[in-house]
Amino acid sequence: MGAIEQAIILAAGEGQRLRPFTVLKPKVMLPIANRPILSYVVEAVAKNGIKNIVMVVGYKKEQVQDYFGNGEQFGVDITYLVQKQQIGTGHALKTAEKAAARTFIVLPGDNVIEPETIAAMTRAESPTILVRKSENASKYGVVVVEGGQTKQIIEKPPQPESNLVNTGIYVLDRDIFAFLENERDLTAALQKMIASGRTLIARETTAPWLDVIYPWDILSLNNAALGNLTTATAGMVESGCTIKGPVRIGQGTIIRSNCYIIGPTIIGQGCEIGPNTVISPSTSIGDNVTVSPFSYIRNCVIGSHAQIGPSASIQHSVIGSHCTIGGHFTARNGAATVRVDNEYHSINVGAMIGDHCEIEDSVIVQPGVLLGNYTRVRPLKVVGESTADRSLIV
User: Fold this and answer.
1) What CATH code is assigned to 225-393?
2) How far apart are CA 11 and CA 383, in angstroms?
């Protein structure tokens, strides 16, 4: 097949199970450690010497195109193709047929990966699928492998035959398009290819590969991405502050006196934190965020342009962008049963608050509650149930 010189990145999907966070932005643009998920994929491709990227976009495509442009600032050349209807990965890849090189690597745009994750794949000499062991194999496509070759890919089996799951990363050649003619799903086309006698090598990786499926997965991905954080201070830190571990502070940010910050933590540009605020590990705070005095934040993702009132306590929570939260707010962390797409999940988590929410003083949000975008909550309320977008709680 020769050296791989082109990457086709599938970045058209919405991510409905991640609502409310994907109502206003595509899944690939969700911020993880203050960067869109898709940026990790582009970086991994670029660092492996692949400069030619074909990006299949669809849902809210303008946000992707505005951020990445022609790819020059990322050291790559990006060509965009539009999947007008998001009806499967096979259909998405078929969209790229005219632009596809003789051989190429296919990657999902909604996974956090590192350059080493795909390093060996870029040297593959025949069609190859990247697999990884998973303790929750039934949530993914399970890959049955014999003698290093793929025998079967079974989507979300209730009783998996294997603990190897499909990462959605492949090295393929143009022959795949013949098997995509009437298939919406890429795995179905791959099954046809295997049945025709073509070999699909299975290559296992132990390098980072992280998928985000549900809103609370944002926290685990954020925690993992912060594992590589290095300390950097571009803002101003007033006297009396204590900073421990890797903490990155953006340009124009002010850390007021007597704050206590433990890394890994990243704080964006133009923020004002404290005074007397405590920020504990695994926290990402976006750009232009205000955190008022005496607040406590732990293991959280807080979107850009959010305003947090004084004496807030926010743990294991995701706060969307442009939210305004009053004083003495509490996002409780604990055991919860959360329903998403008629599935029930038992998790330990705080609050999941969408974009542009307005929460007034002395509000408590119970564990596992998902507040829709533009939700408004009056003072002194205890919110125990999830809400749709534009809800009013009085």
Assistant:
1) 2.160.10.10
2) 35
Distance in angstroms (rounded) separating the CA atoms of residues 354 and 21: 6
pLDDT at 2 > cutoff 60? no
Rank 13-22, 179-188, 273-282, 329-338 by mean pLDDT and report only the highest: 273-282
Helices (H), ranges, the chain: 37-47, 61-68, 89-95, 115-119, 176-179, 186-195, 217-225
H or E stretch at 100: none
Residue 31 near residue 284, CB atoms below 8 Å = yes
Q: Which CATH class is domain 6-213?
A: alpha beta
Cis ω on the peptide bond leading into residue 20 (within 30° of 0)?
A: yes
DSSP track, 135-159? TTGGGSEEEEEETTEEEEEEES-SS
**pTM for this predicted structure:** 0.90
**Predicted local distance difference test score (pLDDT) of residue 165:** 87
pLDDT at residue number 339: 84
Got the DSSP string for 258-279?
T-EEESSEEE-TT-EE-SS-EE
Long-range CB contacts for residues 289-293, cutoff 8 Å, separation at least 24: 292/327, 293/256
Q: What are the structural domain ranges in the chain?
A: 6-213, 225-393
The distance in angstroms from the start CA to the end CA of the chain is: 63
- Over residues 367-391, the mean pLDDT reads 95
pLDDT digits (tens, 9 = 90+) for 253-293: 999 999 999 999 999 999 999 999 999 999 999 999 999 99
- CA distances, 114 to each of 40, 48, 212, 321 (Å): 7, 10, 15, 26
Per-residue pLDDT, 135 = 76
Report the chain's C-alpha Rg in angstroms: 22
